[in-house]
Amino acid sequence: xxxxxxxxxxxxxxxxxxxxxxxxxxxxxxxxxxxxxxxxxxxxxxxxxxxxxxxxxxxxxxxxxxxxxxxxxxxxxxxxxxxxxxxxxxxxxxxxxxxxxxxxxxxxxxxxxxxxxxxxxxxxxxxxxxxxxxxxxxxxxxxxxxxxxxxxxxxxxxxxxxxxxxxxxxxxxxxxxxxxxxxxxxxxxxxxxxxxxxxxxxxxxxxxxxxxxxxxxxxxxxxxxxxxxxxxxxxxxxxxxxxxxxxxxxxxxxxxxxxxxxxxxxxxxxxxxxxxxxxx
Length: 280
Fold this sequence. Notes:
Layout: E1 2-7, H1 10-17, H2 20-28, E2 32-37, E3 50-51, E4 61-62, H3 64-78, E5 83-93, H4 96-102, E6 107-112, H5 120-125, E7 129-132, H6 142-153, H7 164-167, H8 194-204, E8 216-220, E9 224-233, E10 236-246, E11 254-257, E12 260-263, H9 266-279
Parallel strand pairs: 1-2, 1-6, 5-6, 5-7
Antiparallel strand pairs: 3-4, 8-9, 9-10, 11-12
């Protein structure tokens, strides 16, 4: 996989991408990440890349010409059209599924905006999609680009020891990862739960390492929480029940749990929770 980052601050990006797992993957040749300085593609003797927006307003807008020349240089260098992503707070919020889809693309061109953003003509002509890392605004697109590269690159073959390293984690299958503990069992603050100490003993004696039940809880929207309660052994879910709980729990709502209708009042939910806790 080849990732090209167009930015006004290539040193900032290189400082992060040269370290840890991504840095080792680059050195081993599993991925290629290059940072392109947009200032090198301006014809202005002062290397100016921004100007005031038409119609007035505060801030500066990155000019279209230097960005397009940078993009054209990348395109000529790799001999193909890359998938162009513009990091923008107006874009689609990045999630694990989209990161997985991007990880199989051969060439990605990430454009980092700055100031008040980039000239709209660039977005209309070369950008394939806009991606955001959250509903907030940063001073530039470099930090979001680093987040994007990290989450995409770690799913490229060879970057991590095996696929299970990223498949058995939060959000990959729509679930959240189980709690993690390590030695010593009795730390400065609290002791490791007894069941996890028993699992550690089983692992040392050749037992199953994947006995920790996953907390199967994820929020959808602001008012509904969907709790997936199941039992997992050898990464296979044997029993799966779905309970939908409304914040306004005093409102009666008939829902389905494995084909059976239940009344999701506070009293009914407490009873169901006790049954599930005993079963666990």
